[in-house]
Write a structure and sequence with these properties.
By secondary structure, the chain is of the alpha/beta class. It has two domains: 276 residues, 3-Layer(aba) Sandwich (Rossmann fold), CATH 3.40.50; 91 residues, 3-Layer(aba) Sandwich (Rossmann fold). The chain has ten helices and 16 strands. The longest helix has 14 residues. The radius of gyration is 21 Å and the shape is globular. The C terminus is likely disordered. Iron/sulfur cluster (SF4) binds next to helix 9. Iron/sulfur cluster binds next to helix 9.
Length: 393
């Protein structure tokens, strides 16, 4: 009988012990004497208690476990969202202090030229630029934090490797032509599946201690779900993370496509889950709303094919300045703001955020940048002077 891939779960003990206990249930001998690269999710400048990033103590637990086994070297690398300085993100997220404690190197994935990888049998991308340091190690461990995602449903271990893409290559994944007639899913889901055909983690450790629900990956609320998952099977780890977040992995388009393309089982029963009675670790994450506007009454948001950087900027702007925007409402009583490359129609007087909306700039207030910073949006709005022929907004 063929044995099922093992997925190990532990919880209720905080970010460090959850991971220690999840790793204890696996045979880690394949990692002995290896060169290990840890890829957390530290894509944004935010403190550990925010739920934006992987908790540093979850990674500390991996490092301690690896040191006990005896590995050749350990490093931590990241290519954060566009506009974020990786070392600033590491510092704010508690990684600089943690890595120094263990003498582990922090790597800026964008510091060297990328390697261009061809995608075999592509859906949408024929090639992609991957950061070269990813290939300098024997083992790649993806360590995502559990978050819902406005564009992809959830972001977990497989999608976390989008942070191995070089600089603006991440943005390109959001700007690809929509081939609706060929593939009904979003281009981003197809692009992630193309990436997964050349790069999946050798091991995944999911940090489910403090995740993000609702308007993730950048505008949601922290949720204390207090679990960790460890597995050598990338799909198994993500399937069980979905389960513990109250999701069914088959509802997550990129996982469904990757399962079909890479022949990776996507049902819970396809895996040997330790412990079998994992139900006590389930926390229902609030799903992302279909429209951002639902969460901000009086604000009409158009988001058509934006990428995570602009979405993150918009969420920061709305959380900080959203309540002040009622004074800039248009004739329908709502403040209108738009992001993404696919904006085609908008009410006159709308605010257009990011270089992707440049073609709309004559219709309202345009804020350039890729992405712009939230304060620039605010300044552009409050300092905007209507021209003589323009109706006041
Ligand atoms: S302008 Fe915004 S949506 Fe467009 S590529 Fe830049 S960050 Fe992404």
């Amino acid at each position: 009988m063929i044995s099922k891939p093992i997925v190990s779960i532990a919880g209720k003990e905080g970010p460090f012990l959850n991971v220690i206990n999840a790793l204890k249930q696996l045979d880690l001998s394949p990692l002995k004497d290896k060169r290990i690269l840890i890829k957390p999710n530290v894509g944004r400048i935010a403190p550990p208690e925010s739920g934006y990033n992987t908790h540093p103590e979850a990674v500390a637990a991996i490092i301690e476990t690896l040191n006990e086994i005896g590995v050749e070297t350990i490093a931590i690398g990241e290519s954060p969202i566009v506009g974020v300085d990786v070392f600033e993100a590491f510092k704010r997220a508690g990684f600089t202090e943690m890595a120094a404690r263990y003498g582990v190197e922090l790597i800026d994935f964008n510091s060297k030229p990328p390697i261009v990888k061809n995608i075999p049998h592509p859906r949408i991308l024929t090639e992609t630029k991957v950061c070269q340091q990813v290939y300098d190690f024997d083992v790649l461990i993806s360590v995502p934090v559990t978050k819902t995602h406005m564009h992809t449903g959830v972001t977990l271990g497989i999608k976390n490797l989008k942070g191995c893409l070089y600089r603006h290559e991440k943005v390109r994944y959001h700007q690809l032509e929509y081939l609706k007639k060929v593939y009904p899913e979003k281009t981003l889901d197809s692009a992630i599946s193309d990436l997964a055909s050349i790069l999946t983690p050798d091991m995944t450790v999911v940090d489910g201690f403090l995740g993000m629900e609702g308007l993730g990956p950048s505008g949601g609320n922290p949720v204390n779900s207090n679990f960790a998952i460890a597995s050598f099977d990338p799909m198994g780890a993500d399937v069980m993370a979905c389960r513990l977040m109250g999701y069914d992995a088959e509802e997550v388009p990129h996982l469904k496509i990757i399962s079909e393309r890479n022949k990776m089982p996507i049902k819970v029963e396809d895996y040997e889950v330790l412990p079998a009675n994992y139900d006590e670790y389930i926390t229902q994450y609030q799903k992302p709303p279909t429209k951002i506007s639902v969460e901000f009454p009086g604000i009409e948001v158009q988001d058509v094919d934006s990428c995570s950087s602009c979405l993150s900027t918009l969420m920061m702007f709305l959380k900080r300045f959203g309540e002040d925007m009622s004074q800039y409402a248009l004739c329908d009583g709502k403040f209108h703001i738009a992001i993404g490359k696919g904006i085609e129609k908008a009410m006159d007087g709308s605010v257009f955020v990011g270089n992707c909306t440049r073609h709309m700039k004559d219709k309202g207030i345009y804020v350039k940048g890729c992405p712009p910073v939230p304060t620039r949006i605010y300044e552009a709005i409050v300092h905007h002077e209507p021209d003589k022929n323009e109706e006041p907004i």
